[in-house]
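New to this. Comment on this protein:
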Amino acid sequence: MLALVLVVISVWLRPSPQDLTLRFHPFVGNKPLVLNTQSYKNPGGNGEFSIRDFQLFISNIRLSFPAKSLTEQESYHLVRFDGNKAFDQIVIPKIEISNLKQLTFGVGIDPKANGSLMFSGDLDPNSRMAWNWQVGYKFLLLEGTLTIDNSQLPLVYHIGFDESYTELNFDIPNKIMTTKGVINFKVDLLRLFQKTHPASKELIKIESPISVEYIDMSEMPHVKFYPKDVKALAEGFHDFISLM
């Protein structure tokens, strides 16, 4: 009888499964990104830019708990910052999220999936985010306009290639988790244009302040297939997403 009571209590105390929501908020530095109508200073030079389209792939989500880990199946999500919402989100349904200690995901598409024609998650080889089966997918798409002295220059940044795939790990403090199971992330597109990325170059150990330099958008308005330019922006994948 006692054993039965203990089992009932154990089941009763077990946390109920609930949705886990990963909510991504786009920013330009400390300012929320507003598409089309808001202008921002060129981080590395003259003029102001506006953004009309910003989207990226988040993949291979893994949740780590004290005694186990969970990996989402078909974990390929296209995060799009468009429409009327100030954020986009990924919902992982019906899991036990108590005691979540670490969250891991990739920016972009892992090499195996990037070289495949399979349909999995949000992957679609016929979509706008796909180049071709030889090159794979665009991991990040950022498009807009740079205005200098009333002259407009199109901005087109399509970042891909297997070597750009970046895995990020986030330790999840208990206070981060809300009662609704929402984890908020800041996505700072300015970090893509930093010439020095402390997280990727291990400069965070330096005690003196780091002088941050930025890429002049007018000198690099288009990035697609040139590996050196792609690498310069993809290095920002290491630290352009952070917990809010």
Q: What stands out?
A: Confidence is low (pLDDT under 50) at residues 4-13, 200-204. Residues 2-13 form the longest helix (12 residues).
